[in-house]
């Protein structure tokens, strides 16, 4: 796995993305799983391109990311032509150190491998983007697909972005559209873009967490709370009229809400990793084994192997 990280480092060194005095680079494909069939770009396309996109920080990738991809793939109104795992270091709300980029991209590539192994009929790819906002990411990807599909127009391209409910709220928050025409930006996005939305529950990361049955009840209550917040936002926010206008272009995944994996988050995993590394130096062998077992339930095998091999998330 270290050889894969080395290959990604060499690729980044060649294109020099996200470095001072360099222009924003175009979308960069940094990994295609070996089990993925090729993207149908060399023959005339007889049907529209439906691109399923999970854009996340993947810090680190978890089984929840896999579940989101799988649920979306299974329930999307149109069968996806390709599934993308995208990442942008330029985040609207979070800072990111360029020195961490090779490691993060390696983690994402390992997640893509797991997804592709489970879905060998679906072309899968990982792409590095340069823009922080979804409206700009959509423009980047539209240009990308126009080029690789040899199509001069975007008429046949549909981009399906998978968002959690919290991200959906931020997507419609006017504060991210200051000094620009929000209505016009929404019109441009939804002309080719669609949203696949699922709620997310974040349980406690404490080692003294309540029993699982109690946590499950709390998770159901949290889901109901999130649904209420989302409904209130969609009905009464400053962007309510825009939300109503494009509501038919937002597809919800209600089945995913009842899944146990809906309570998994990168925050939870980072907390467990911190406990794991502490137990490695201060705890017992039994504690280390228990924590590693919990991590392997929450993180795909290839990802957790790389994390432990590299000693990641100790701080």
Automatic annotation (TrEMBL):
GO terms for cellular component: cytoplasm; nucleus. Residues 16-42, 201-221 are annotated as: Disordered. InterPro entries: Rossmann-like_a/b/a_fold (IPR014729). GO terms for molecular function: ATP hydrolysis activity; nicotinamide-nucleotide adenylyltransferase activity. Signal peptide: none annotated. Residues 201-216 have a biased composition (Low complexity). Gene3D superfamilies: HUPs. This is Nicotinamide-nucleotide adenylyltransferase. The lineage of its organism: Eukaryota, Fungi, Fungi incertae sedis, Chytridiomycota, Chytridiomycota incertae sedis.
